[in-house]
Structures are given as C-alpha cells and as structure tokens.
C-alpha cells in the first residue's frame, strides 16, 4: 500500500484496469469480486436445483435416472452451502461494509483478505473441477463410509471444501482483528452497529468451527488416498466419528449463515422503520449467545445415527435452548416495527419476508429437536423444507435484501425499484410455493434424496417444482437488473435510505480509504434529525440529510 | 491479548497520507504499535484455529484409545522412546532460541537475531531428520496404517512372519519363493534371533508332509504357516491326513531354520503363534549353500530317512522375546498407527511450514529489516513455533509413553 494512493476519488475509479482489480488490496473491491463469484455460483447452484426439481416433476423416470439425480442434488447442495450461503454475507457484503461501518480505512490484513479471496476461487475451481470430472454423488455431507467408496470425484470436491474452509477462517480472523483494533476511540462495543456484532459472532464461529471441518475433510481426503483407516470400519475406524466432526462444524456453520443475516436485518429494519432498534443489547448479546450455543447442539443431526440415549436427550434439550436467542431477535425486530414509519422499499420487502420465513424455519427446527418426532421426520422432506426456510428463506433473502440496501452505496447506482419490488414478491411467493408442500409431504413420509416417489406425492412435488421455477426466474431477473444498473441505473445519493451508520456518511461510492476526512461521530439509530430530501440529485434520487433538529446542536465534530 | 483491545487510542487520523517510521508500517495502520498489536491479535486467533484443527485428531485419539486400550498399550512399544525424547529436547531448544530471537530483535541485536534464527532452523531440520529416521524404520518394518500394517516384528522386537511374505532386509525371517517352492533366503539364528545373511538361502530338507496338526479350529484358519504349509495342505488334500505328499517345507530344527514359518497361523489380519506340528518324511537335506555358511554344520542336518519334525526345540531367544513382549499384535493395532501417522504427519507438516517461515525471517534479518520498531514477524513466528512445540509435547507422551 503505497503512500501515493489517491484517497479523494471513488474506489471504483481510482486505478482502473483488470490488473489493478486482481491485485487490489481494497476491501471493497475484494468484496465486489466475491460478489461476482457468489452470484455466479448462485446461478449455477440454482440451475442444479431446477434440474433436481424438474426430475421430480412426475414419478418415475423424467429427465434423468438415479445416478444423475444423485449428482445433481450433491452439486446443488455443495455449491449453495460452500460457495454461496457461507461466504455470501460475510465475505462479500461484510467485506465491503465492515470497515466502512467502523470508520476504518481497510480491514486489518488486506493481503490476507486478498489471499482469502483467491483461496475461495481455488476452492470454487476444485468444486467445479469435480463437476467437470463427472460429478459427486455423496450429498454435501460427504458421510463415510459411502464417501470412501463412491467412484465419483469425491477427492476434488473434498479438497475444494477444505480450501474454502480456510478462506472462511482467514476472513473471520481478519474481521475479528479489525473489529478489535480498528474501532475509533469514540466507538465502544455498544456503539457498534448491530451488523458488526453479528459479523463478530460469525467470525468467532468461523475461526472456532471451520478448522474442525478442515481436519475432518483432510482425514477423509487422506483416507481415500492412503486408506489411513480413521473412518473406515473395515480397518477398525469409526464412520460415526466423521458425522460428529462434520456436524461439529456444520451446525455452527448454519449459524455462520444465519447470524450475519440477522445482522443485516437489524440494520435494515431500523432504517426502514425510521425508528431506533428495539433492544440493542439483547440483539447484540443474542448474536454472541447463538455463536456459543451453536457449538453444543451438533448431535441433533445424529439422533438416529446410534448415539446413546443420554446424548440424544442432552442434545435435544440444548437444541431447544438455541431457540431462545433466535426468538429474542424476532421479538426485538417485531417491536422495532411497532409504531415505526415503515417504508416498503425493496430491501424492506426482503426484511419482512425474512421475518416470516425465519419464524417458520426456526419453529420447524424446534419440531425436529423433539426426539420422538425427529425419528419420524429425519431424512424426509420435512428436514429439507426446514433448512431451506432458514438457509434460503432467511439467509439468502437477507443477503439479497442487503445487496439492494448497500448496492447504491458501493456501486453508486440505484437498481430499478419497481422491478425490484416485483422480484421480491416473486421470491417470497415462489419460495413458499416450493417449500410449504415439502413440509406436508415430508410429514407424510416422503424421504429426501430419492429420485423417484410414490404417486401419492405427485401434487406436492408438482407445486414445489412450479414454485422453484418462479423463484429461480425471480432471482435470475434480480441478478440481471443489478448488472444492468451498474451502467444504466440512476445515480445514487450519499444516503438514499436514511441510514445512521457510518457508511452513509462516507461518499458514494467511498474513496479508497473510505473517508477522505476522518469520519464524524454518529448517533447510532437516531433518526430524529435526518431529513428526507426528494430529488436530491440530477436523476431525482432521494437523499437524507442530517439537519439539526429543533433545540439540538448538529453532531459534527472532531 | 484480547483484553487490551479497547485501550488503543483513536485512530482518527487515518485515511490520508502521513509518514510512518519504518518502511514496513503499512499505510492503513495508525502507527507501528497499531500494526504490531493487530498482528499479534491476528496470530493469536490463528493459533486458536490451529489448536482446533488438531483437536479433531485428539478426539479421534481419545476415542480409539478408549475403545482399544490394549492396542495402545501394545503398539506404543513399537515407538522408540529414545528418538522421541531427543526430538522433544530438540524442539524445546528451538523454542528457546525462537523466543530469544524476539528479544534480540527488540533490542536491535542483529547478530544475535541471526544466530537465534539459525539455531531454530537447525533444530527444526534436526527434528525432521530424526522423524525421517523413525518413519523410514517403520516403513521398512511395515509398521504402518490400515492394510499396510504388516509388521515383521512384534512390539517387543520378536520376529513375526508377515502376510505379504516380504520382510526382507533388516531383521526378517525366511522368505518363501512360491515359484520354486523353496525358501529362497533368510535363516534365523537361534541365539540372536537375527537373520544374519538375508541373501543366503535357508537350508531345507525335502520332506514328505504327512500331517499338519494345528491347535485351532479348522475353519478359522486362513493361512497356515505361511503359504508354504498351505500349499502342502492343498496338495495333501483336505480331510485326507496321513497321506504323504512331497512338498517343500522348512524344517523345524534349531540348527537349520529354527524359526520356520510354520509357527504362525493367521486369522484374518491377526498373526498368532500356535502349536503347529508338521509331520513329514524328509528325504535329504540339500547341501549347504556355501561352505562359510555359519549354520551349515553337517552333523546338525537331518539325516535322510524318516523323521518327525515337531516344534520341540528348547525356547529360543525368539520365543523368549515373544513371551516378554506382548505377543503378536492384537486386532486393530493398525489403528494406533493410523493415529500415529496422522498426528505426527500433520505436526511434521507444521514443522515444515515453520522452516519456510524461519528461512524467510532469516533472509529478512540478513537484509536488516528488523528494528526495535518493527519486529512483529519474528514475534509472531515465535508464537507459532511455540505452539508447534507444545503440540509435540502433548504428542510425545500420548504416543510414546503408554504403559
Ligand atoms: C431455531 C433454531 C434451529 C433449530 C432448533 C434447528 C434444528 C434442527 C434439527 C433438529 C435438525 C436435524 C433434523 C434431521 O436431520 O432429522 C436440523 C437440520 C438442519 N438445519 Fe436446523 N435448526 C435451527 C436453525 C437452523 C438454521 C438457522 C439453519 C441454517 C441457516 C439450519 C440449517 C439446517 C440444515 C442445513 C439441516 C439439515 C442438514 C442435512 O441433514 O443435510 N437450521 N435443524
Ligand atoms: Cu444443526
């Protein structure tokens, strides 16, 4: 980072050229590059999903037989989990937003940040290589002993997930240090935007859980290469140990997905309600509580894997407790809406979808935590519907919402609002149409990961497939109009939504070190003296400006 | 390390060009201290990550040890405590020099810094060298993981025949040549239990096998007395004992081949000594391979004619060794080596990574990059190195010192 960096121009313009982007240390550029990769993966994973859904349109042979079906759902799961949902909010949006919300010039370790990005690319490459080499059919969970025997390209897929894990670890580490060491003097822990609390809790989980996945996948990898025997029962190894290690990561991983989503939701919900967030400390603490609890409940994925009864009971009880911090958040968000001046811009539509979908997803998780019920529901479509409500209905919806929220800030352009709203509705309706029937058929016994089904389920599968296409098309249109808006969108103002966090004080788009002048101290979530100025720029976009409210002095200082 | 996060004063002057002292202070930090503190916190988080990375293996260790205590007690005797202890000492010394390097860097003692870095590197190489010796010995003896676990010796050092019939070299016993149906090399010395001249053929007699008595249930038997016997048996026809069939078998005679393979039976992966008796009619003993063959005393060769060959020789040193040691490996002994190689291998990779880091530090130290204002990398590397050391300090007793 040379001293000659121009900190007056927008980071998008300052040093053009593909080389300058590929070698950039600017967290916003890295975030945007992640975003491209992630959106691409989203379309790819979505294409696999639609193939799966098409195959399930009717009982019996439709487009593909069982081998291809197994490959499709495995690739769908692996791409969506490892390439989209886990890095989505932290690596792409978090990277862009976190330093700006802190008022910092960059993350603590910009080179490490770039390295994480290239690790992500390598991992993605390996996963795609697995696809090209004839696919993987183990499911994204890579359970042993099947993953030891499968003749498909398990090795590159596992290697890819391993590398992606390290990308995630280094991103988390970077964020932890940045939040610890780059907060301005006036920003104590409880003056941090809630998004930063969420990213902090996420980063903790990334650093504490992902290494366990790393060693597990490494052992699986070595096992396939050299038959080391740790997981192979024919050599005296323990295949259930794999499940324990896998879920020890992958349960926290579901919180790595959801907690940052909760962070962006907290930001958006207060902005679009024009009202101070309700229960700041509760939301902040519950993020950390979720991070800690998430390490204690992995056994709920293994109720029928031969765990001891005692273990089952303990894990079941602990799993219920995870509902508490989740519910605390939902209550606080709802209370924030109460008597707010709610603005239904596109991001807010996603926020409201999130609230509904997350509540359904979380509650069905509680159903599954009940031992006797889980024995019936385990490995059925009920589980599939549950985790899609939380992973897709919550995390992905929050991600798309937040993408709209910060899009103007970081690209300098507005997306087309009317189309945005239409697609938000498409996502919401399509999503429910896809997954509500899955709850029903799951509870009636339709097992997951089957390529064929009894005709009694045909109606549900058809509804689900139709919903999936609506959902897929809506998301595809979102990606298209966002890309379109990069050049054609209306010019964005500095603060088009009236947010109170520091990024809305930075120029649009921010400069290389984010702030040409040291950022002022802001009053977090205080909307009183923010005034809406319609038609603030030549494209007629709204801006919100801080005006001293009656009696109160302006808060510009330093 | 995480407690002092709040004590750093504001960094409100970032975002515009201002000079830093050392050329290695990056621009987005307020000052050298800010950079150092950030790096330090970062490396601590990294170490936490490392601990968790290893934790998976420690869990596997606990689990398998809990399930198979006998395996761990038996198998750890295969490991050489001497080398393990030396390596422990080597790493402790290197940790000391790594810490000292930090001190030198802080005080600006360039020579001391370079010396300490060199010592650390030498120790790291020493560690890997010793590990190489240990590993190569294990490879030789087939004391490996999974199906590759096929040891030539029991954990007390006594010889075992092995399934793959190829304990050549070091301490092996006899190798059977399936084509010529002769024991084509090796003959154990009864006193030492060592194969003195693995290249020299053993001394055989041509015998007619009359009966093979095995003190175990017949259908549990997979491979009797290495395949030599098996072939005799096949030729003799199952269920038709007492029908003499010409066959090559090693003669059980303490002066000829005291440890013929006939003394072992395999159940699955497990080799067990058993009271195999071979009754055979020997035709003649072949001439000694070479006059200087130490064991080729004509008087000790079985005379032509009828002879009953049973294992009735007095206990050899081999027998005693087997008795002292825990006998042949219990089932799943391979699991110990799965864990052993996984843990020490991963640790070794970390040592290797440390070597690269220290070479890089050495180059930078030679270029004079480190000053009392800027010495972070030396400090961070030392922390990493201490962790690598610490992990070994756990591995050493857990693997080498089990009773
Ligand atoms: C309210 C909190 C939650 C509870 C109590 C809960 C409970 C459960 C339980 C008991 C299962 C196991 C069902 C079975 O396999 O039989 C499960 C599966 C799953 N959950 Fe949740 N869950 C919660 C939130 C989440 C969140 C927030 C996510 C992701 C963002 C998530 C993702 C998943 C996934 C991916 C699976 C299935 C994995 C697989 O087998 O492939 N859950 N959940
Ligand atoms: Cu879970």
Largest sheet, strands/sense/barrel of chain B: 4 strands, antiparallel
Poorly predicted regions of chain A are 551-558
CATH-scheme architecture of the largest domain in chain B: Up-down Bundle
Number of helices of chain A: 15
Tell me briefly what this model is:
By secondary structure, chain A is an all-alpha fold.
Give a description of the structure.
The complex is a heterodimer of chains A (558) and B (403). Chain A is mainly alpha-helical and 558 residues long. Chain A has a single domain, classed as Cytochrome C Oxidase, Chain A (Up-down Bundle). Chain A contains 15 helices and 2 strands. Chain A has helices at residues 18-22, 27-55, 66-102, 110-132, 146-149, 154-181, 194-226, 239-273, 280-293, 309-337, 346-369, 371-377, 381-411, 417-443, 458-488, and strands at 530-533, 543-546. Chain A has a two-stranded antiparallel sheet. The longest helix of chain A has 37 residues, at 66-102. Chain A starts with 17 loop residues before the first helix and ends in a 12-residue tail after the last strand. The model of chain A is unreliable at 551-558 (pLDDT under 50). Chain B has 403 residues and is α+β, with helices and mostly antiparallel strands. Chain B folds into 2 domains: 2-143 and 334-400, Cytochrome c oxidase, subunit III, four-helix bundle (Four Helix Bundle (Hemerythrin (Met), subunit A), Up-down Bundle); 164-315, no CATH class. Helix content of chain B is 44%, strand content 11%. Chain B contains 8 helices and 9 strands. Chain B has helices at residues 32-67, 69-75, 81-107, 110-140, 226-236, 317-324, 333-366, 376-400; strands at 175-177, 182-185, 205-213, 223-224, 245-249, 264-267, 270-273, 277-284, 305-309. Chain B has a 4-stranded antiparallel β-sheet, covered by helices on one side. In chain B, strand 6 (264-267) and strand 7 (270-273) form a beta hairpin. The radius of gyration of chain B is 30 Å and the shape is elongated. Mean pLDDT of chain B is 67; it is low at 1-19 and 164-326. Classes of the chains: A mainly alpha (558), B alpha+beta (403). Chains A and B meet through helix 6, helix 7 and helix 8 of A and helix 1 and helix 7 of B. Bound molecules: protoporphyrin IX containing FE and copper (II) ion.
